[in-house]
Amino acid sequence: MTDSQMTPPEPQGTELPHSADPVLDHGSYDQLRQPRGAGRLELDGRWHQISPRYVASQFVQNGILLVLLIAVVLVVAFVLHQQWVWIPGGIVAVLIVGTLVILPRQAKAIGYMLRDDDIVFRRGILWQRIIAVPYGRMQLVDITHGPLDRAFGVSQLKMVTAAAATGVQIPGLTQAAAESLRDTLIDVAETRRTGL
Prior knowledge:
The chain has 196 residues and is of the alpha+beta class.
């Protein structure tokens, strides 16, 4: 037998040309939309407050809720002839209006402070809550914003730790402030990792 008889022939058509597009990337966008963070924040130990646009956003959201409540109460009372709906509807309406009245003062009570080893978060008027979260204990930093929040340019930043009770949510941050705070927390947390 000769060498040409011993080697099997190569299968035809099994090689892909180098210029062929991979299947997973075919027809996809060429780049991701990048966030516009303003850079890293200083660990200066000063209190930072949320954006006043948070109050406007909450006014609109609670106003929509109040209008929907009134519509449901009117339909149930006059179309379905159920007069009992006035009592729970009135109680919920008073609670919503009360929330709108104290909302500006509540927003002024929300703040955070970046210190050397932890972030301190405060909120509340009558019942105040102050939480200090060590950077090394953070497991996740998440930014969320709904359609109305996006319309007003505000976001909510959530920090998750191993203990569920110490999770912190900071509402009413501008998008740039939320992204800068997220980047700062991630950078600092990497240098201060501790055992969980």
